[in-house]
Amino acid sequence: MIIMKLTELILYLQSFSFFLPVTRKTELDEALVCITQRDTQPFSIVEDKEFMEFVAKLDPTYVLPTRKVYLVTWIKYESSIKFQKLTTVFFL
Length: 92
What we know:
The protein contains four helices and no strands. By secondary structure, it is mostly helical.
């Protein structure tokens, strides 16, 4: 619960510096977590200069999340995957 509130606060404060709507930013952050974790990239990928340049060329209005925001997004992503697996097993 505290992590959720902290995440909401961070997203709210960061939204002032973005040109993207917060929902679009959240979608892109989640997609980033999904693809980087599937390829087992380190959390520091969001601080990699070449990766940052690549993302800027794809969408100049998107600002990569900080490592902490990335980690919180990853935790939410992993817990939702585990929940889906559990519900699949129990409700088959």
